[in-house]
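Hey L., structure's done. Input below.
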Amino acid sequence: MKMFNKIGWFLVIAVTILGCQDDDTEFGPVVAPSDLSVSFEVQGEDDENPNGDGTGVVTFSANASNALNYTYSFGDSRSSFSSDGDLEHRYVQQGVNTYTVTVTATGTGGAATSQTTQVTVFSAFEDNDAKQLLTGGSSKIWYWAAAEPGHLGVGPNNGDPTDGNNNFPQFYQAAPFEKNGADESLCLYEDQLVFSLNDDEELVYQLNNFGQTYFNGAFESVVGGSNGFDFCYDFDTDGVKNVTLSPSESIVPDSEKRGTTMTFSDDGFMSYYINTSVYDILELTENRMVVRGIMNGDLAWYHTFSTDDPNAEQGGDDNSDGSGEPEGTLVWSDEFDVDGAPNPANWTFDTGTGSDGWGNNEQQFYTDRTENIEVSNGTLKITARDEDFGGRSYTSSRIKTEGLFEFQYGTIEFSAKLPEGGGTWPAIWSLGADYQTNPWPAAGEIDYMEHIGNTQNTIYATVHRPGASGGNADGGEIEIENASSEFHTYRTIWNEDTIRFFVDGELIHQVANSDAVPFNKDFFIIMNIAMGGNFGGDIDPAFTESTMEVDYIRVYQ
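Output:
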């Protein structure tokens, strides 16, 4: 997405330059236009229909001496530019309404002359079916269809209007759950778009953004941003907006759209900020909506919404969030119900210090001793200890299923109670089985759970891949209670579309999976406690020992 944002910026700059050329402003003597006159004709106006035929269409004409161009403000929160003074405008507010129109003629040196006139026009357009579908007859909440490929996309707003291929998202289409990636916030998929009918049966709208809105990078200045790319910013969307339905005037072929446009009052917008309040409805059913909004004249953004909450969709009644039995068949597990060393049919050991502290400047020596690892009383216990051993000041243990159990896709669940103490770094994770011939991060890494004693009760879930590894990895975090004194259930759901991480049924993080990332092959499981290192941080001088207990670990497919 970062690369696309750069492309988007170039497009915005190009549009801006072209827009400046269209203004036809000339340098020279400052000469204000004079003798400005404005006339208009309401379509279908006659003795029987004094305010028009209900289409709401008005044709305007302006003329002035020494004028280079004209700007119209139509009195309905919309405006437009004309080089010759002639424009057609459709008023969409239902009923008979009077609008104050301001026309500004601009001359050389930027000198301007303005004139106002009033237009009374009748608009009879209705799409009551759209109102019913949007609101369910009273009120309905819409969410991003985050699991659907292309739920957010952009393409050109030009081309042959009879060729639908020119009007759909050619430039970019978001992968499922892409906006929960490493450089994005979680705010987009949390948004609730509420459409309702008020007491007068008028269509109204409210965006519940829970404090943050996902901004297109071209408009970050609205909120004082300076990231240079799309980002979530604090933004107030409180207040009910009126929604006006009008006939679609976009270049999208009639066969590819509903024929209805929504216009939101008071700068209302549909979740993703692209500086528009006008959206063409392409598709609308009881539970799916596709709209098209225009940004900076030449870019068309496409949004797909659903009545299914993307967060609840991954949990709740389908038991896919850790709150019930996982879906699928149990294909591998260790219940840790036989005392002694870990089951050798399931686990082998990594011992020693590894290369450069296992690649992370870790301070422990991994052993297979019972002092560091054993199964007793129904749990696996991995213990990190403050002791001199093998040239290091700490010991611990690390076990893995490499060569014994390797798998692609599934639900991975375990119940664990974590160690405590500054510098402890427990993890339960997976590494790509081809790591020896396809070195990290190309092999891929999936961290189902990480914890560090220096941020007690914070749980991390992360994936590492080329372009997003180490300190720049794609991860999320969540606060829980009693991470080290109580067992918690950790569940990861991994398939060809997404990888989703939960603790006690709450979503920690989710990332999109595709052929472009290394998460579509066999991985094996690793469990360990590291000490210190790049992520574990400073080790508490008072640390003596602490233990991670695992009640069970299971894989379903």
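The longest helix spans residues 2-22. The first strand starts at residue 34 and ends at 42.

-- N.
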